[in-house]
Recover the amino acids of this structure.
């Protein structure tokens, strides 16, 4: 938001000779803000391609894309939350809880006050499970927006609640064979749909692409997108301008729950099982993808494009470390170091921008003072 304002202001007041340098400066900042993730991705690909001939094979690229898609979908929901200046630590647990709900629905639902067991169709199971994820997000958003509770505390608590409910529903048992359904009950076709590969790409990749397009349109072409950037940049100013701040806060957590629910279904189809630990650490990978993609944790800055690239950075890095045989312990160390580096670069860049803006403001003030003095002398 502030970049747009800075870019439009000189065009109406300054001469043409002053517009071009500022335009180039702003464009360069935008390139550096989002381009660093793409540069990191290219470097990672070059390094691991040189270290292993198996890295850029069609099979490995398909595997990377599938794994990246799960992280990217979660990261898209996390982007919406972070743009608002919040955080959602519960999405990983919501992934597991969504899969547990779906698994239990495949087992059948005992109707109250009867001996009848109902077996819903596949699409009913999917819709109900994803709706549960959205419900958890709505509860998070309600507590944060209406009661003014800290997002970190609310979503941390929900992380434990959702994970605990997952363990209660599964009762220490994985759900596997029931997911295939029974033809006589009309609830088959789950794996044929959600584990399929249309045009050679995993279904998760197609879902990622569709959601990326939708979220990009929402952020750039709708009033909600403008409201979201406004509330993330300055919540008080947005409220005074008539933005429905509380509604925006609630909605972004619902969207995060939606993405988590979708990933729960896709990941359950991917591993052919519903397990209690499904989705563990997904929230951390999502936050990392958003930050690496150039978003500010303070809110108000970030793009869908950068987030997707950030997810690919993490995916290609993790896969490359496995391909070259790096110890799992060192994989965590390296991944953590990359995240810290990304945040550090972001903060350094913001400091440089603030100092540059301050110097420009001082220079403008001195110039205005000289012009006033000249007019007074005349």
């Amino acid at each position: 938001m502030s970049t747009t304002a800075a870019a439009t202001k000189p065009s109406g007041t300054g001469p043409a000779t002053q517009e071009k340098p500022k335009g180039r400066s702003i464009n360069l900042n935008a390139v550096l803000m989002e381009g660093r993730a793409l540069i990191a991705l290219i470097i990672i690909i070059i390094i691991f391609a040189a270290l292993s001939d198996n890295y850029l094979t069609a099979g490995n690229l398909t595997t990377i894309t599938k794994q990246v898609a799960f992280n990217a979908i979660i990261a898209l929901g996390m982007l919406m939350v972070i743009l608002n200046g919040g955080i959602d630590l519960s999405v990983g647990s919501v992934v597991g809880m969504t899969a547990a709900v779906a698994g239990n629905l495949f087992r059948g639902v005992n109707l109250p006050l009867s001996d009848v067991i109902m077996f819903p169709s596949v699409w009913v199971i999917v819709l109900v499970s994803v709706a549960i994820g959205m419900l958890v997000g709505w509860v998070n958003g309600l507590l944060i927006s209406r009661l003014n509770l800290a997002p970190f505390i609310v979503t941390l608590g929900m992380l434990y609640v959702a994970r605990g409910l997952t363990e209660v529903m599964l009762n220490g048992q994985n759900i596997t064979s029931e997911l295939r359904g029974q033809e006589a009950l009309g609830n088959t076709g789950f794996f044929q749909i959600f584990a399929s590969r249309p045009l050679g790409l995993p279904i998760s990749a197609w879902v990622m692409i569709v959601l990326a397009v939708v979220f990009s349109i929402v952020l750039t072409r709708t009033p909600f997108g403008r409201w979201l950037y406004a509330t993330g940049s300055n919540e008080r100013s947005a409220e005074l301008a008539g933005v429905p701040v509380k509604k925006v806060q609630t909605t972004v957590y619902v969207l995060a729950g939606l993405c988590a629910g979708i990933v729960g279904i896709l990941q359950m189809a991917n591993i052919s099982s519903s397990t209690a630990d499904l989705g563990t650490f997904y929230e951390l990978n999502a936050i990392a993808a958003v930050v690496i993609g150039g978003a500010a944790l303070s809110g108000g800055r970030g793009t869908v494009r950068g987030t997707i690239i950030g997810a690919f950075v993490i995916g290609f890095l993790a896969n490359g470390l496995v391909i070259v045989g790096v110890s799992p312990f060192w994989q965590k160390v390296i991944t953590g170091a990359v995240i810290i580096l990304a945040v550090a670069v972001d903060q350094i860049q913001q400091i440089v921008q603030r100092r540059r803006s301050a110097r420009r403001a001082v220079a403008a003030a001195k110039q205005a003072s000289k012009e006033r003095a000249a007019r007074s002398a005349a």
User: Anything to note?
Assistant: The radius of gyration is 24 Å. The first strand starts at residue 109 and ends at 110. The CA atoms of residues 327 and 333 lie 10 Å apart. DSSP finds 14 helices and two strands in the chain.
